[in-house]
Amino acid sequence: MATKVINNNKMSAFTSLVCRGDATKIKEYLEDSENEIEDRQIFINERDKSGKNALDFAAMLGREDAIRILIECGADPNYCTKTGYTVLHRAASWGHLHCIKMLVNCGVDLQVTNVHGERAREAAARYGKQDCVDFLDRAEAIAALREAIQDIKSTMTDPEKNLGRLNKEDKLTGNKLCDEKNTWLMANKDTASVELIFKKKDELYEALHYIFLKLEDLDVEKKR
């Protein structure tokens, strides 16, 4: 089946709206009844010769509202080019902290690396965008603590992971400590140092070390 080619004038008009950051017009353009659903996806996903699409241009220019509308309309914020650049890399490299904050709130992957082995954090550092580096360091620490809490809670409640090896007291203790750390994180995520957030994660694992020893014994038995 041949790939549909969209009218160049339409594509240019849409790209112009994105570059101006006119979120209202972008939404109207995508919802225009004259544009078929297939056309809308082409508007959103079409890439130029360098691999950039509408989302990339919006991120490079700091058009936060345009980024939000594009994602709401189906753009993938985690898509990366052949050289490994994501929209988060673009925003970080150009120093658009407001766009980075919005993308992090959308749940973008912070660990994707480009051809230089750089995450968005390292890309920001290479271009001297220290405020972006600091924010991404904090975002990574917060994500690490949240992931630890979710992982431990999942282990406490999933019978396939603990096979009955954990007793009621173990589960109550684990869930209680996770809830305490989550409450602390919600209250302090914007003010606590990155080091302290990582320390809270380590404290959680240390406090539940005896539980993980039980599960390690279980893994050994399963391998026999």
Q: Can you characterise this structure?
A:
InterPro entries: Ank_Repeat/CDKN_Inhibitor (IPR050776), Ankyrin_rpt (IPR002110), Ankyrin_rpt-contain_sf (IPR036770), HSP70_C_sf (IPR029048). Keywords: ANK repeat, Repeat. Pfam families: Ank_4 (PF13637). This is Ankyrin repeat domain-containing 45. By secondary structure, the chain is mainly α. The protein folds into 3 domains: 1-76, Serine Threonine Protein Phosphatase 5, Tetratricopeptide repeat (Alpha Horseshoe); 78-157, Serine Threonine Protein Phosphatase 5, Tetratricopeptide repeat (Alpha Horseshoe); 162-222, no CATH class. Helices cover 68% and strands 0% of the residues. The chain has 13 helices and no strands. It has helices spanning 8-20, 23-31, 37-45, 54-61, 64-72, 87-93, 97-105, 120-126, 130-157, 159-162, 168-188, 194-207, 209-223. Helix 7 runs parallel beside helix 9 (130-157) and helix 9 packs parallel to helix 12.
